[in-house]
Protein: Glucosamine-6-phosphate deaminase
Organism: Mesoplasma chauliocola
Amino acid sequence: MNIIKLKNEIEVAQKAAEIIENQIKINNFSVLGLATGSSPILTYENLIKSYKKGEISFANVKTFNLDEYKGLQPTHPQSYRYFMNEKLFNHIDINIKNTFVPEGVNNVNPEAYDQLIKDKGGIDLQLLGLGVNGHIGFNEPGTSFDSLTSEVDLAKETIEVNSKKFFNGDLSEVPTKAYSMGLKSIMNSKKILLIATGSSKAEAIHALVNSEISENWPCTVLRNHNNVTIVIDEEAGKLI
Ligand code: GLP
């Protein structure tokens, strides 16, 4: 595991964007795995800037998102499809037909998602955030390392954190279930890039790097992968 510790979230986002851009420059037909949450927002802003400067094109890129809330329409402002359109896709030259996010309401078919990824050539580079409890995607503690894309229950902690960040603190608004790529789906990616910033992630980063590989900390599965880069700031890395 390659660990890059930087000063703050600005530097983390620059580094993450640079790694993603390099992937596209190496192969402009790359298949990217993308993440939502607050962590990747600045990274996406940097990608948009590079696109606007003419440094990269997404015209041939395909993307697969990790997860989606069960029950939220793609037009719902807190749905991950809406997030991706707003934070990235609407601002770049990607063909929206080449962007895939698990369906939250209509045409729900999580079991077909892994096959679709395979059919498109597999994920070249998967971007990940990190839950405070060590979840990746929506794979909460206790998830099997053999899991594929499926319907999942969100942990109480995740519902609380996401209600504060995205649902104006209204717990009742946060779906309790989601569709998420599984840990095995994530591990099938050729390269993985995890980003984390802020002290709330310090314990999970410590577990990722130092704890026994176990389903109690889903992120520890990444230690079984041979091409993982984690980019963190000083705060997230303060326990390692
Ligand atoms: C969310 C998402 C994850 C994300 C994580 C961290 O619930 N499902 O994909 O990585 O939790 O979120 P944030 O970046 O907002 O801290």
